Amino acid sequence: MEALRQDDPRRFGRFTALARFHEGASAVRYVARDTATGEVALITAARPELAGLPAYRRRFQAEARTAERLAGGWVAEPLDTGEEPEAPAEGPEPLWTAAGYVPALPLAEAIGIAGPLDERALRILGAGIAEILSRVHAAGAVLQGLAPGTVLLAADGPRLTAFGPLGAAASAEARPGGQLSVRLGYLTPEQIEGKEVSAASDLFVLGLLLAYAATGTTPFTEGPAEEAARRIAEDEPELDAVPEALRELITRCLAKDPAERPTAGTVAAQLALEGAAGLARGGWLPEPLAAAVADQEARVLALDVPREDSEPEDAPTAPEPEDARTAPEPEDARPLPAPSDGPASGAPAAVVPAGDGGIGEDRGTTRFLNTGPRPPRNDRPTTQLALPHELTAPPEAAPAPAARPLPPALPGGPTAPRQPGPAHGGPAPYPAAALPAGPAGPGGPAGGPMVSLPLPPAPAPAPDPAASRRTLLTIAAAAVGGLIVGGGSVAALGSEDTAVATDDKPAPKPRRTLPGQPPEPRWSYAHPASESSPLTAAVWRDELLVVTSESQASAVDLRTGKRLWQRADGAKGQAALAAGADLVFVASPTEFLWLSPKNGKVVHRERYTDAFGDLPGLAVGRPAGSSGPVVWFTGSHTVTVKAPKPKKGKKQGKDREVVQAHFFAYDIVQRKELWRTPVPAGRAPGAPVYRVVGDRSADILVRQDAVSLTAAELKAAKGKGSVRSFDQKTGKLLWTRSYGAVSPEAATAGDEDGSLYAAVGKDLQAFETDTAKPLWRVEGSAGSAFGTPLVAGPLIHTTERSRLVGAVERGSGRLVWRRSTEVPGIGNAPSLTLSGSEKTLIAADAVQVTAFSAADGERLWKFQDIGSADPKGATVSASYRAFAAGETVVIQRDRAFYAFPVA
User: Bias regions of kind Low complexity — which residues (predicted)?
Assistant: First the structure.
């Protein structure tokens, strides 16, 4: 960290720069203060010469959007993307993003301070990164941005700052002729062989990163520089110095065949069963690193906003002759020092033009594909973070010498080997750092040979067989010689012309099932974008998935995932229940409907004005629960209470509008009301919100949601919630009781044996329902709270806001098992669903779905879907939901539905 220089910007939107935090080849990071809140932030600002390149601007902004999508857990949420800056008087608009400041050290710097990490720290580091990769891969994307300089070590766990090959992980430079030079990080065997990059490629890089963190070097560094690519593609890794307990897992990550590498979810589970956040509790950094992080935080927080009249410091630099920035240096005078942003400088480079001439649609953005109707497939080639196809050039634009393993010097300077030497003085952590370097550009020395990113498919003339053969030979030479290598395509970058030669790809090998990998979905269904989003979804007799929306109700065949029918009559439906063996019951805002499961035709309807004629204007709320043919719900209507006749000489008072509410039981097979009982109206508008928490032979137990309680009711309760008991046959209110310190908002569930289970503070407590006597208590996580428990046979399955899921014995409260879903952070507790056989427990929250063995808590698999294929589209924030249907569990997130086989 150093003082601001004379030419550094002082303002970035609402942020005031305080100091330089870190300087890289493509961007400068500043410590800044939010003028609105006073909070400290980190600004990443592109160098002006790069900000003026349209290709870099598009990519920079795309990566900022990606960071927004992945925010949470080990990814800091951006505070501002700087997409509407104030235009300066001269030059390009500044290009920057702001994120909250987290005291942390780059991994490369941390290794230089304290040496390799111990086993526990390695587990936390690897699990945290794997959790991020799992989210990226669930989106159908590939990260390609891991590097020691982009992984940060904070006091509570790792952080990742790179979201794509042109993002923070790359070292980019503006080159003569308006081109963009980008040096990538680690290479993988499939990249070297010219094959498609996939999610499995990220796992290879993760293996290299963990090996570096464990040893201070990578397994493929030793040996001649010109053979670095061959070693990555052919040699077995040297992992003797890696802790024995982690050696096998890292070896699997470094498998040459991508199909043999584990999924990100598997790696996260094997490294930290309780999740990286759980394992990191209580501190995880060695003392020297913890002290360095604390010192950094203290120095940052001590910074003051510079005065307007203060003179910024500037490091003295000798003036550079004009022609010295363009003339090539002598070959013996050009060893390539590592730039300030770490060892990524030795990575391969790609060059794209800066101009926009002839470019139509901007496709140079992060792509989240395979998130629509087709389910994502873990660790299979899906999509890449690709350069714009419009920015590619004909293959003949790049030299392709056939007689030499290394290419000749490109225009602008000769080739020179990259000199290893990270901050700690050991071998260079990047295998690509040993590859030959390219020419120098105006931004500093360039990195190694140019390597393209996988290009998105585009129509192209079919190549003749001879051309295909020549292309394959070119790829083989490029693996070592520094030509451009892409996923199934070969092109040189640097012209506005476009040409792609595509080779036939061999059929992928069948994938073996790996721990943590979700099963292949039986089908997936995407609710049409032309229709409004789903409001509710329910399973009908293990045959149909009935989905309601603002415009209609529709049904999906649970066997095939095909939509069978849609019916406008069911618009805004609040439930979909089985009315006997042959009808679907739907409650709409104005009527009860009975639909044919075959075609959705309305077989019968009961309007509330007819069924409840003595309650004019009845508004029916969401069903409180159901059992067999009986459904319970609340309803309310407004009545006019006439003012009493005034006394002689007094004025007539005004009539009053009063809301009256009732609790109903209704038989949906016989289509008749069983009973109703008056209840407090609660907070208007609408009926009070009830939820049946226990269904016993003689009575039902009901909780009223706190949101529908009036302020007077909440005050009278004195912070305690209550449970009401209604007679099953007559609806008579039997009693109302409070249970210990259970609040009105606390999650509650009861069983048929007379016990009630409720969240009390951070714990889960059992009570005898009829006497309110406490039975037992299960201690929860500090700062957390239990969600609604799920009663199943002799067990109660529990869920906590800290993302812990478990099981306890109903009778004693003895803990049977407790596991983490591996989702960091605090939010609502996951919702729980049991499979039809009750062997699999599904935990669903806003981030992912996790499947456990209900008996012993073994984590079976995880599933995620980012939900949108358009990087500029709205981010899907809806939580996951799960519906059990026989041997299938249907997972929903907003418009997307997936049917997974379960035990």
Answer: 339-354, 385-395, 412-438
One DSSP character per residue, 39-103 reads: -EEEEEEE-HHHHT-HHHHHHHHHHHHHHHHH-BTTBPPEEE---SPPPPSSSSPP-EEEEE---
Task: Quote the tokens at residue 434.
Answer: 């040993």
User: Domain tally for the chain?
Assistant: 3
The residues with which 246 forms a beta bridge, in sequence order, are none
380's tokens? 């299979």
What 3 state SS string does 376-400 have?
A: CCCCCCCCCCCCCHHHEECHHHCCC
Amino acid at 536: T
The beta strands (E) that lie in 59-212 are given as: 78-80, 96-100, 104-106, 151-154, 157-160, 171-175, 179-183
pLDDT of residue 338 exceeding 70, the answer is: no
Rounded CA gap, 269 and 860, in Å? 10
Cα–Cα distance list, 74 to 66, 67, 165, 427 (Å): 14, 11, 19, 28
For residue 806, being part of any structural domain is answered with no
Helix (H, G, I), strand (E, B) or coil at 455: coil
The single-letter code of the amino acid at 50 is: L
User: Average pLDDT of the chain?
Assistant: 74
Judgement on whether residues 218 and 294 belong to the same structural domain of the protein? yes
789-834 confidence digits (pLDDT tens): 999 999 999 999 988 999 999 999 999 999 888 776 667 899 999 9
Backbone angles phi and psi of 787, in degrees to 5: -90, -170
- Please tell me whether residues 403 and 542 are part of one structural domain: no
Q: Are residues 596 and 632 in the same domain?
A: no
Residue 892 belongs to what H/E stretch? strand 888-893
* Pairing, β 576-578 against β 584-587: antiparallel
DSSP for 30-52?
EEEEETTT--EEEEEEE-HHHHT
Contact 634/726 with Cβ under 8 angstroms? no
Cα gap 77→72, rounded to integer Å:
6
More confident residue, 26 or 578: 578
Measured CA to CA, the distance from residue 101 to residue 297 in angstroms comes to 9
**CATH number of the domain residue 193 falls in:** 1.10.510.10
Q: How much helix, strand and coil, in percent to the nearest 5, is found in the chain?
A: 20, 30, 50
519 falls within a domain: no
CATH code for position 625: 2.40.10.480
**CA dihedral of 876, 882, 885, 888, whole degrees rounded to 10:** 80
pLDDT in tens, 722-760: 999 999 999 999 999 999 999 998 999 999 989 999 999
DSSP string, 797-831: EEEBTTSEEEEEETTT--EEEEEE----S--SPPE
- Whether residues 281 and 295 share a domain: the answer is yes
**Of 329, 289, 321, nearest in space to 116 by CA:** 289
* 275 shares a domain with 163: yes
Output the CA torsion sign for 339, 344, 348, 352: negative
The verdict on 398 and 477 lying in the same domain is yes
* Same domain? 437 vs 543: no
pLDDT of residue 747: 93
For the chain, the maximum distance between any two Cα atoms, rounded to a whole number of angstroms, is: 118
Last residue of one domain, picked from the residues 703, 738, 773: 738
Q: Are residues 579 and 639 in the same domain?
A: no
pLDDT for 757-769, tens place per residue? 999 999 999 999 9
- β-partners of residue 105 are 153
With a CB cutoff of 8 Å and minimum separation 6, the contacts of 62 are 164, 364, 365, 366, 871
Q: Tell me if 483 sits within 8 A of 237, measured CB to CB.
A: no
Encode pLDDT of 555-579 as tens digits.
999 999 999 999 999 999 987 899 9
Could you tell me the residue range of the domain that residue 432 belongs to? 112-304+338-502
